[in-house]
């Protein structure tokens, strides 16, 4: 016995056509959604504006120095990009080497004197430090370097 005979009401339902229509609408919506996401990401990342980290000289060599002196150098950093440059962190192998990061973003076209200090106390002979600076650029991390020959105290 069919359902039509049980209820006495004849209802014509074409499930194939309904689900096919829903599948087509759902498929179109999914494609449209992914197309919008693709365009948005492409605009923001591919064609978007970025900050650019530019340094006048990435490696600085100090003259021979007696142990116990605190050395200072300023790296001249320029933002050659289109949006503010943010230097957020740095890493170096030794706590004797420090950078003074800017408190405010470096605006496009502006420069900043990034201060490096190196405490030679307890350091002897050739010293070579690589400082990795984290920034909001495509590259993400930028390398600065300093070298010095420290003469031990007698």
Description of the structure:
This protein is an alpha+beta fold and about 150 residues long. The chain has two domains: about 45 residues; about 100 residues, Immunoglobulins (Immunoglobulin-like). The protein is built from two helices and nine strands. Strands 2, 3, 5, 8 and 9 form a five-stranded mixed β-sheet that branches. Strands 1-4-7-6 form a four-stranded antiparallel β-sheet, with no helix packed on it. The protein is elongated. The N terminus is likely disordered.
What is the element layout, followed by pairings?
Elements: H1 3-7, H2 15-46, E1 53-55, E2 59-61, E3 65-66, E4 70-79, E5 87-91, E6 97-100, E7 111-119, E8 125-135, E9 141-151
Parallel strand pairs: 2-9, 3-9
Antiparallel strand pairs: 1-4, 4-7, 5-8, 6-7, 8-9
């Amino acid at each position: 016995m069919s359902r039509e005979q049980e209820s006495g009401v004849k209802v014509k339902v074409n499930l194939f056509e309904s689900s096919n229509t829903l599948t087509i609408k759902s498929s179109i919506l999914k494609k449209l959604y992914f197309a919008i996401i693709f365009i948005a990401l492409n605009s923001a990342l591919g064609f978007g504006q970025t900050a650019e980290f530019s340094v006048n000289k990435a490696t600085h060599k100090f003259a021979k120095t007696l142990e116990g002196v605190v050395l200072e150098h300023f790296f001249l950093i320029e933002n050659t990009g289109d949006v503010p440059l943010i230097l957020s962190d740095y890493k170096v192998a030794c706590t004797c080497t420090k950078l003074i990061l800017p408190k405010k973003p470096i605006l496009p076209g502006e420069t900043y004197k990034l201060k490096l200090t190196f405490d030679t106390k307890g350091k002897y002979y050739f010293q070579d430090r690589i400082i990795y600076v984290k920034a909001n650029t495509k590259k993400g991390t930028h390398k600065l370097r300093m070298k010095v020959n420290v003469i031990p105290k007698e």
